[in-house]
Design a protein that fits this description.
The complex is a heterodimer of chains A (455) and B (122).
Chain A (H helix, E strand, L loop, with lengths): L7 E3 L3 H12 L5 E3 L21 H5 L3 H14 L4 E3 L3 E6 L2 E6 L2 E6 L3 E3 L3 E3 L12 E3 H11 L1 E2 L4 E6 L1 H13 L3 E6 L3 H11 L3 H16 L4 E2 L3 E8 L2 E8 L5 E5 L2 E6 L1 E3 L2 H5 L4 E4 L4 E4 L12 E3 L9 H18 L6 H24 L4 H5 L6 E3 L4 E2 H10 L5 H8 L12 H12 L20 H4 L1
Parallel strand pairs in A: 1-2, 1-7, 2-3, 7-21, 9-17, 11-12, 11-17, 12-13
Antiparallel strand pairs in A: 4-5, 5-6, 8-18, 14-15, 15-16, 19-20, 22-23
Helix pairs in contact in A: 1-3, 1-9, 4-5, 5-7, 6-10, 9-10, 12-13, 12-14
Chain B lengths: L6 E2 L7 E6 L2 E6 L4 H6 L6 E2 L6 E2 L12 E4 L4 E3 L10 E3 L24 E2 H4 L1
Parallel strand pairs in B: 2-8
Antiparallel strand pairs in B: 2-3, 4-5, 6-7, 6-8
Classes of the chains: A alpha/beta (455), B mainly beta (122).
Chain lengths: 455, 122
């Protein structure tokens, strides 16, 4: 009886947890596939066993939310089929291919909620592959998950809410900070204030972090552009940058954390054959879905940052809404007022996205003007110049062709790191709008798996 | 020896674990990822296959795949998502160091290396 197949949830962050809890509340026993060893996702990632810091130290203002979400998951854990340490590496013909403990198994599905989350959005700059240089999210994980700072004198650089949050968390934990370098010009921030006031919580937290950093005497500079990371003894020793006035400055450091907002994990949605469309606000191709998380592909639902960046609060709502959509489609009775409330709140988050993108604009000019000698693809060691030359010489006006000709985006990470910037580099080199050059297609395995598993 | 890349700020009161990095006996803490264990003892995880120097991870969340390290029995582990275990023997300076283009097979790689910019390496 195929109809007895339990629903599957991929991911156990805010979206996946709320989806699983909603399905469990309806009496179903969902299979929850989580690549991590414990639930929580990246934002509410739990410390390993034996770590003792309290929630307040780990999650700050979001401690109550983290605790609520963890408690919710722990409450349903006995009523669902939770499979941690499980990588879904392929999805096709109604089957999920799951790698766990060195073995791959197939999980047949009738309906699945994809909640794979997001990663830092990166723009390479000269020297960025030197040891000591990490994403902002990576710097946060080092502290939250391991109690470590990524260096003794850290530069935080880029844009987005994570920039000030992670710098603040480092300062509070006693970490050494060289400076916080924000690519957003001060004027752009000031213009964004009226819009940000519509989400007073987010705005207040941001102000708090900035004030706390300034109170500690930490330099904050706006409107900067990275020039080059310099290295000594095979590790980073300084960041060369241009300040808002265009003057080059050299800042000694032993670590750099950088990032420019977030980018959705869309590989599984791609393998599920969901159509994608270019989102002009987030400047990336995203899988098509409606407000309820339904996609044009029957039985496949999307929730959370993996279907477009909206943040953890929105992800919780989207997870619940997608699960309710799944239940509706299975013929369950679903409370209409709750649906309306969820959709109203989700629309509000979607509307607020444009404001956030204006407050933390993606500095596409850094990618477009990337010096030719910059390593663009750190997996395959492809420079921006090699990528541009291949694209121009072979008339590769589509990013998968440019990838095939240059190997950029063909490595282990499948373009997760270089992809967003490579799209801008290519579009600029060929003088085309970014939506014209397409997106890197997802390929199985979506992450490296041992050869023995597939042969 | 270079100062380690990572600095412990909290959670240091965990049981000690012994491991061997490039033949050197080292210590880590139970609950450390392999990445943390290596970077609280040094500044590198592996060597880039393309001759552009050492790498020490990047995203720490299993996305970038730039932290795969080799144990001396040939096992490969993603350092940011693997936990360190007692007696692990890790090799961060693999044969790739010896087979970089233009490098004589018998030349030893200097442990320190001299100052260079990323531009200079390309």
């Amino acid at each position: 009886m195929t109809d007895d197949r339990p629903p599957v949830v991929i991911g156990a962050g805010p979206a996946g947890i709320r989806a699983a809890a909603t399905l469990a509340a309806a009496g179903l026993v969902p299979i929850v596939l989580d690549e991590a060893p414990a639930s929580g996702g990246q934002i509410y990632r739990r410390a390993p066993p034996g770590f003792t810091r309290p929630y307040r130290a780990l999650y700050g203002f979001d401690a109550a939310k983290a605790s609520r979400l963890h408690t919710a998951f722990d409450g349903i854990k006995g009523h669902i089929d939770y499979r941690p340490d499980t990588l879904v590496w392929d999805l096709r013909h109604g089957a999920l291919h799951c790698l766990s403990a060195g073995r791959s198994r197939e999980v047949a599905y009738r309906d699945v909620i994809l909640a794979p989350g997001a990663r830092d959005r990166i723009i390479p700059f000269p020297g960025w592959t030197l040891p000591g240089i990490y994403t902002l999210g990576g710097a946060q994980i080092a502290l939250k998950y391991q109690g470590c700072a990524i260096g003794r004198r850290v530069v935080f650089m880029g844009t987005g809410p994570l920039l000030y949050l992670v710098a603040y968390q480092y300062a509070k934990a006693g970490g050494g900070i060289a400076a916080v370098l924000d690519t957003t010009p001060f004027a752009a921030k000031r213009r964004a204030v009226p819009g940000l006031m519509r989400a007073p919580g987010t705005f207040a937290k941001g102000l708090w972090y900035v004030a706390a950093l300034r109170a500690r005497g930490i330099t904050i500079a706006n409107g900067i552009r990275p020039v080059e990371a310099e290295g000594t003894d095979d590790a980073v020793s300084a960041l060369l940058y241009r300040n808002a006035a265009g003057t080059e400055r050299r800042l000694a450091c032993d670590a750099i954390a950088f990032g420019f907002g977030l980018s959705s994990e869309t590989q599984l949605a791609d393998l599920a054959e969901i159509p994608f469309a270019f989102d002009p606000v987030q400047q990336q191709f995203l899988p098509e879905r409606d407000i309820a998380g339904r996609t044009p592909v029957r039985g496949v639902y999307l929730a959370g940052d993996g279907s477009g960046i909206a943040g953890a609060d929105a992800a919780e709502l989207a997870g619940e809404r997608a699960a309710l959509a799944l239940l509706e489609d299975r013929g369950h009775e679903v409370g209409k007022p709750r649906l309306a409330a969820l959709e109203r709140d989700l629309r509000q988050f979607a509307g607020f996205r444009a404001t956030l993108e204006a407050a933390f604009p993606f500095p596409a000019d850094i990618a477009a003007g990337m010096p030719d000698e910059t390593v663009l693809c750190r997996c395959e060691g492809v420079t921006a110049g090699e990528f541009r030359r291949a694209a121009r010489a072979l008339e590769a006006d589509e990013i998968n062709r440019a990838k095939a000709f240059s190997r950029c985006g063909m490595g282990r990470c499948q373009g997760r790191v270089c992809g967003p910037a490579a799209a801008v580099v290519l579009a600029a080199a060929l003088n085309l709008p970014p939506e014209r050059i397409g997106r890197l297609r997802g390929q199985p395995p979506v992450k490296p798996i041992p050869m023995a598993v597939v042969t | 020896m270079d100062a380690p890349q990572f600095q412990r700020l909290a959670e240091s009161d965990r049981p000690r674990i012994r491991l061997v990095i490039d033949g050197r006996p080292c210590e880590a803490l139970a609950g450390d990822t392999l990445l943390t264990a290596l970077l609280t003892n040094g500044r590198r995880l592996r060597t880039s296959e393309f001759g552009d120097g050492p790498r020490a991870g990047f995203c720490l969340m299993g996305a970038c795949q730039d932290c795969w390290v080799a144990l001396d029995d040939g096992t490969r582990l993603r350092a940011c998502t693997s936990f360190v275990a007692e007696g692990m023997r890790i090799v961060t300076r693999s044969a790739v160091d010896m087979s970089a283009p233009g490098r004589p097979k018998d030349e030893l790689i200097p442990l320190g290396g001299k100052a260079r910019s990323a531009k200079g390496a390309l």
